[in-house]
Amino acid sequence: MSHGARVIALANQKGGVGKTTTAVNLSASLAELGRRVLVLDLDPQGNATTGLGVSPRELEHSVYDVLMKDEPIENVIEATIVANLFLCPATIDLAGAEIELVSAFSRELRLRRSLDGVRDDFDYVIIDCPPSLGLLTINALSAANAVMVPIQCEYYALEGLSQLFRNVGLIQASLNPELTIDYVVMTMYDARTNLAEQVVREVREYCGDKVCSTIIPRTVRLSEAPSFGKPITVFDSGSRGAIAYRHLAKEVVGG
Ligand code: ADP
Ligand code: MG
Questions:
Q1: Cα distance between residue 15 and residue 50, in whole Å
Q2: Can you give the pLDDT at residue 255?
Q3: Which ligand neighbours the alpha carbon of 14 most closely?
Q4: Where is each AAA domain found (predicted)?
Q5: CA 220 to ligand 1 centroid distance, Å
Q6: Ligand nearest to the CA of 22
Q7: pLDDT digits (tens, 9 = 90+) for 59-73
Q8: Nearest residue (CA) to ligand 1, atom 16
Q9: Contact 52, 20 (CB under 8 A)
Q10: Is 250 helix (H, G, I), strand (E, B) or coil?
């Protein structure tokens, strides 16, 4: 009965807005709901990889080999400490791919084709994009059904968004007609500041009903969890961050 995984790309060319934190913790929460989830780390920094307790130094293969060496993705996938949650890891090799892809055959669609091998094995594939709009992100957007854009509740939150939306529009027109921005997620919300509330209002005005009703709070536990190699749902299961990401997962599955 499977129609194949729903592929969601976490994209925003700004760094530090919560892409990786959302990729890891949304995925863990979806897995907790019994969905089979693959986190695909597409950032050479490998923060989603280490955040899920996998050490890049101990890996023989990574997403780099999938993109550049035609390694079947199923050979690269690692289990994690969370049931139902799997990882296609990144290592620093991936930094070279941004350049190597320029001259590669069908350079925008390599990830999409690789995912065909595992589409029926998962309910969700969550792609953690690097902080740029280069060929790695283009590969993610070409492979995705939907884009999730995390936005930090900070000054200049809307800066760069029109460029991101324009790029998604270009990919939709040329490479992936299915692609839509389905989710805008406000992150690092600090209820003690008027600014955060003001930013949420502005983003709602600009992005309308794409803005998720779940707002991710700023909490130190969310920033501590990655250094223990655990998603927040395992690291501190009852914390505000864990509860927020579980809410977000419910929004994504449509409950
Ligand atoms: P990106 O992947 O967009 O660069 P990250 O998810 O790595 O962003 O987040 C940037 C930094 O902010 C990281 O140190 C992360 O631990 C921290 N962080 C992310 N979300 C939160 C949050 N809700 N509360 C506190 N710290 C957060
Ligand atoms: Mg990141």
A1: 17
A2: 59
A3: 1
A4: 6-181
A5: 10
A6: 1
A7: 999 999 999 999 999
A8: 223
A9: no
A10: helix
Length of the chain: 255
Handedness of CA 19, 20, 23, 27 (dihedral sign): negative
204 burial type by CB count under 10 A (0-12 exposed, 13-18 middle, 19+ buried): middle
Are the CB atoms for 82 and 234 separated by under 8 Å?
Answer: yes
Indicate if the alpha-carbon torsion angle 26, 236, 21, 197 is positive or negative.
Answer: positive
Nearest CA residue ID for atom 1, ligand 1:
16
Instruction: List 147's β-bridge partners, or say none.
Output: 9, 181
Structure tokens at 20: 């990786």
Tokens for 3? 């129609």
Q: What strands, in cross-sheet order, belong to the sheet with 6-10?
A: 78-79, 85-88, 37-41, 124-128, 6-10, 146-152, 180-187
- Give the chain's count of helices (H) and strands (E): 11, 7
Instruction: Give tens-digit pLDDT for 203-213.
Output: 999 999 999 99
Is 86 in contact with 37 (CB distance < 8 Å)? yes
Q: What is the pLDDT of residue 155?
A: 86
Q: What is the 249 CA–ligand 2 centroid distance (Å)?
A: 19
Task: For each of the domains in the chain, give its residue range(s) and CATH number, in order of start.
Answer: 6-254 (3.40.50.300)
Ligand 1: residues within 6 Å at CB?
15-21, 47, 131, 187-188, 216, 218-219, 222-223, 226
Identify each DSSP E strand in 66-156 by its residue range. 78-79, 85-88, 124-128, 146-152
Ligand that lies nearest to the alpha carbon of residue 216, given by its number in the listed order? 1
Which atom of ligand 1 has the smallest separation from the CA of 152? 20
* Closest ligand 1 atom, residue 128 Cα: 2
